[in-house]
Each structure stands twice: as structure tokens, then as C-alpha cells.
Write a structure and sequence with these properties.
8 helices, 18 strands, 4-stranded antiparallel β-sheet, single chain, 289 residues
Length: 289
Amino acid sequence: MTKIVDYSKALPQYILPHHLLSRAVGRLARCRIPAVKNLLIDGFRRLYDVDLSLAMEADPHGYPDFNSFFTRALRPEARPLASASGAVVSPVDGRISQAGAIHDDTLLQAKGKEYLLAQLLGSSQRATDFQGGDYATIYLSPRDYHRIHMPLAGKLTEMAHIPGRLFSVSPVTTRVVPGLFARNERVVCLFETDSGPMAMVLVGAIFVASIETVWAGVVTPPAGKEIRSWDFRSNVQVPELEQGAEMGRFNMGSTVIVLFGRNQIEWGQACQLEATVRMGQQLGVCRSG
């Protein structure tokens, strides 16, 4: 019965104009008419019981638009970084929807649903460093903090924007839409760390108006139809980010997938299926740490 309900909720998404709806929401989220943006913010706060006590701006009407409220900064002490030697920290606030080993070129999306690493990253060449490695998929609900931070300190080597659909990434849709994370629009960021390669995949979703990074600004929109990539390895000023530093954000919510190479890290007790995590919380440890 549960499967029938899940499919009935997910099927209408196949015919929705994903990008058109998301762009419309994006425009509304940036509306600066006080009456409109305050109405949106107040309604959202009531619906999702949003706590502003740790926000840099605690006054909900102090934000210039809804998007600024949604991507609000937190006070520095709100998300302390784990201090253990070799700690791998959570890049976001959210819920662990999957975590474990990458079996050759395959990751688990949900029970009975798998997808290919090369498809997720947009090429078999990018996938090579992560075959047999480990991954964690973290779902950000609408009420979560929506800035994305570094699990480890790293040097950016490549970024790719991979166009695609914008299905919802809610647990219901994740359970029933095949290859969801490899079908949705996403931004892939590859880093070199002291413990080896690390990838952060920022997965778009319906009503996600844009995805941005701290070094490139807004990456999408525009959506386009071709994969775009940027190689930073020969760049004189290669972006280097410390552990815990902000690396990007969703303008509306979605999912982050973090990948590491073979024998590079080991997940801890906090990185369990369905566990709620906070940015900066220790999820695992570097094997060399």
C-alpha cells in the first residue's frame, strides 16, 4: 500500500514543467516588496516551525527578500566544528538518507534503487578516483540551514554543471524515481584533500531556484542542455577552502552527496541511515588521521 501511495505522489512530477516552475519560484523568492516578502517569510515560518534564535539576523522581517531569509547565515558559535583529529564533518544540516561503500560504480539511492557513479559525476573519468570508496547522501528539508560547508579542507580541482530534470528529492520521490540523483540537475565539485580526492555533488530539485558556489557565484540558472566544466588544476589562484568554510548554497532546498576515495575515510556512528545531523558534526574519520 505504501508503494502505491508513493507512486501516486511521484507520478505527476513527470509531466510538470520543472524548470519553469523553479524559475517562477526563484523570482517570487527575490521579490523585495515588503508586504509580499514578509507574507512569504511569516507563512513559511509557521508551516515549518523555523527557529531564528541562532540566526545572524533574528528579526524575520529584517531580510530584504525571502531568499535571503531562506539562505540566512547563522552565528559563528551555532555550528562548532568537531575537534577530533582527522574528523570528517557534516557539510550541512539535514538527514542521512544513505551512507556506505561505493561498490565499483554503484551507489544506493533507496532500498531497491541504485544508480551509477559515472552518471552522477557526468563522466567515467571523474568517477575513477571514487570507485570502491565511500559516500553519504544528506537530504535538506525546507526548515534546515541551507548553506553548504567543507567536510575537510581542500583545494578545488574541477567543477561541472550537469543539466537535468528537477524532480523533488523528498523521501517519497527518492524511493520511487529510478536514478533520481543522476537525472536531476546538479553541480559537481571535485577537491584534493590531505586524505585524497573528495567530491561534493549539489543536487537540484523542483523549486530550487539556483545553486551557487563561493568561487563562481550562481552556477545555475541558466540550465542549458550541455554539460559545462571548469578545470582549476592549472589555475594560478586555485580556490582553497578550510574545513567548515562555506563552499556553496541552495536557493531553496535539496540534497548533497559527499564522496571519498577507496580506504580514505571511515564513517562513524553518527552517519547512520535516517540520522539527523548538523553542519560541523563529526560523521567519520580519515583513515590517515
